[in-house]
Amino acid sequence: xxxxxxxPSWVICKSGTSVKIECRSLDFQATTMFWYRQFPKxxxxxxxxxxxxxxxxxxxxxxKDKFLINHASLTLxxxxxxxxxxxxxxxxxxxxxxATNEKLFFGSGTQLSVL
Amino acid sequence: xxxxxxxxxxDCAEGRAANLPCNHSTIxxxxxxxxxxxxxxxxPQYIIHGLKNNETNEMASLIITxxxxxxxxxxxxxxxxxxxxxxxxxxxxxxxxxxxxxxxTRLHILP
Lengths: 115, 111
Known about the structure:
The complex is a heterodimer of chains A (115) and B (111).
Chain A: E1 4-7, E2 10-13, E3 19-25, E4 32-38, E5 45-51, E6 57-58, E7 67-73, E8 76-81, E9 90-97, E10 104-106, E11 110-114
Parallel strand pairs in A: 2-11
Antiparallel strand pairs in A: 1-3, 3-8, 4-5, 4-9, 5-6, 7-8, 9-10, 9-11
Chain B: E1 9-13, E2 18-23, E3 32-38, E4 45-50, E5 55-56, E6 61-64, E7 70-75, E8 84-91, E9 105-110
Parallel strand pairs in B: 1-9
Antiparallel strand pairs in B: 2-7, 3-4, 3-8, 5-6, 6-7, 8-9
């Protein structure tokens, strides 16, 4: 079945630094990928829709200059958390619809801790 | 906002069938009912989906009422590894449409 690989699984960084998270579709092409954020014991919150070759679409309240999304190829989307602060600490998850367009496949998530 | 409502939590004994309900009274004609689950500290996993007919796969069965306003996910023989948060979601035919997650049902399988 389709696989979405997300890297890294966890990252600890100092406040003020930037962190890049990668999301790859391993055996299928994804023109669209979705980025979610999840705080402890809460549901997934959609942050943005990543579109290959064009600008991402951000949800209301999500700062596009803080959460930079790049979808330069059909198999890779990246989320960069710029100038991270402790309140950005969260579980970040990416997803992509498979080639049949029937199902969403999710990465394993990235736990970000900002000190 | 999510268009589905689910119980916050449920318990089920290991080996028994787990029946998870979902209400979606405002479902539109072109929306499918999808179920995903999220095991602790992992990304969600697709389980099953359907439009109006009942569906079954190797993981679960999905029962959709005739008026499509509610559905039930059935795990026929629950195991401890089925402990997870289960999300019932409505998705349109365009798979590029964004998916909004509700709060889901936290299912505890009891030994």
